Amino acid sequence: MPYYAKVLDTDILSRRGRPRALPIYPSTPILTMLVTQHPVLQRFWYPVIPIADLTNGPQSFTLLGKPLVLWLTAAGEPAALRDRCCHRSAKLSMGIVQNGCLRCPYHGWEYDKSGVCTKVPQLDPGAAIPKTYRVESFACKERYGYAWVCLADDPLLPLPEIPEAAAPANRLIPQFYEPWHCSGLRVMENSFDNAHFSIVHAASFGVTEQPQPVRAELVPLDLGLKAYATIPVVNPPLQQQLLNIPDGLTVREVESTWYAPFSRTLKITYPNGLMHLIFTAATPVSDRTSQIVQFCLRNDSEADASAESIIAFDRQVVNEDKRVLESTDYDTPVDLSVEQHMPSDQPGLIMRRQLATLIKAHESVHNDGQDLAKVQG
Ligand code: FES
Ligand SMILES: [Fe+2]
Prior knowledge:
By secondary structure, the protein is an alpha+beta fold. It has 9 helices and 17 strands.
């Protein structure tokens, strides 16, 4: 009998030893997005460090609770290893890059991008390096100016494809790279939530007099979601310059895409044809922290609107969201019964259902009874 079945047998007896009504699944835990507890989240690509930051030498990054070191190889490509030397466990991110390999700061062992130790300075010249001298390596790619990492060998989705990034007429502006103390799911559902603009963004683009959200057309994808909406917005003086729209009110045609679990694009098109497409990832660092990685794509030029001013306006908007999101519970429930909902929350409910289904499917395949009991505990 599996361990969890024994737990359930005793669970159905009351303190007096009398049987009580057996719930359908009495020990079902409330599924939350504590990211380190769901191994399936390792099967996605995440942007972790701007490539520009790696030109200064190795950098550390914690992804899903796992300490990594990233650096640029001799070919200029990013590489990722576990941030722990196999000799005496020193942090490799404190080392240097030598001939494209990573040199440990302690005794100078060197590692290539596959984690194989290629040099041990203390050995006699020509002596073989034991095959056990190696550290764990991870898949790593450059895209959109960032190093992306997948901790598993079998990612469930490719990196997000953003066709607008390939169009030569568009410019890419790196915007924000900073830790937020909230769960990635909160950040994702916030960006599809048309009901908070008039409250959270009252000082930037929200129309205070219109608290009722516009309806979005929703198209669920396989591990993702598309949303289309036409959203009236306030157009403050700075935006009037940046958009070249001299009106106090304007309208956004919005096409949003959610890429499970924690990336999205928000493609905004204004009536004059100006495109402002925002990519945001809430890369999971730990159960309580997400690294916000945001850049935007524009089809105008620096002469039309300076990158600095564009960042300044989006900074205001992002800070308005950050303030409330960091006040929310970080252990976001994907169990729909825990929080209350309204009709405009539908995108977030779709995300929660998809993530709950994914987690349950993965854990039912991979857990034996003992592991299930641990999950329930
Ligand atoms: S701890 Fe890395 S070489 Fe000794
Ligand atoms: Fe917002």
